[in-house]
Design brief:
about 0% strand, elongated, binds heme C, about 180 residues
Length: about 180
């Protein structure tokens, strides 16, 4: 009767040893051809769509559909509407996903200009005229924290509604 107990005890005592063996060998070398340490994304020189995949798509999904269940708003066919209301242009730079991303200012400007295209994610939501973001503008605007995001967003959505813009992201004014 005692045997199973002893076996269980032996297993419990052996477990930490087994786990210790799983720790990587401190003398381990890089695989051949992979010796260089990984570059931070701000210096890696990836293309803008790759930067989007690495920094944004995890939450916003590849095509910008977002995820209602995770409170992640839809950008696809919608994000351009922010350019039509006062304060929206700055808001797009200051949302945490943008301003606190690991991308540098030039990469962020490129990313915004890539999202905000009539033939891109923003699609038909784009205004007639579009002034592309520059590295300098992003640097200036990014520094200013966005306090009280839900209220700021609600104000922008309200301005959109006043212009008759259809809000169909399923997330209402605030969340
Ligand atoms: C960890 C998840 C996450 C990541 C990563 C992320 N976002 Fe977001 N994003 C959100 C959430 C959640 C919101 C809603 C506002 C908030 O809570 O920040 C949001 C809001 C936004 C908005 C405002 C849209 C609206 O309708 O209010 C934009 C634009 C945006 N993100 C772009 C980006 C871009 C571009 C990147 C990549 C550089 C990015 N986000 C990375 C989760 C994320």
């Amino acid at each position: 009767m005692r045997l199973p107990l002893i076996i269980a005890l032996a297993c419990a005592m052996a477990a930490p040893q087994a786990m210790a063996r799983a720790i990587p060998d401190p003398n381990q070398k890089h695989a051949p051809g992979n010796e260089e340490p990984q570059k931070p994304i701000s210096q890696a020189g990836y293309s803008t769509p790759v930067n989007y995949q690495l920094q944004c798509a995890g939450c916003h999904l590849g095509d910008g559909t977002g995820s209602r269940a995770n409170d992640t708003p839809k950008m696809k066919g919608f994000v351009g509407n922010f350019l039509k209301v006062e304060g929206g242009r700055e808001f797009l730079v200051r949302v945490p996903g943008m301003s606190q991303s690991a991308l540098n200012n030039a990469q962020l400007a490129d990313l915004l200009n890539w999202l905000l295209r009539k033939d891109g994610m923003a699609g038909a939501s784009m205004p007639e005229r579009y002034q592309p973001y520059t590295e300098e503008e992003v640097a200036r605007v990014r520094k200013v924290s966005l306090l009280n995001l839900p209220d700021v967003r609600a104000g922008l959505i309200e301005q959109m509604r006043a212009q008759g813009i259809e809000i169909d992201d399923g997330m209402d004014a605030a969340y």
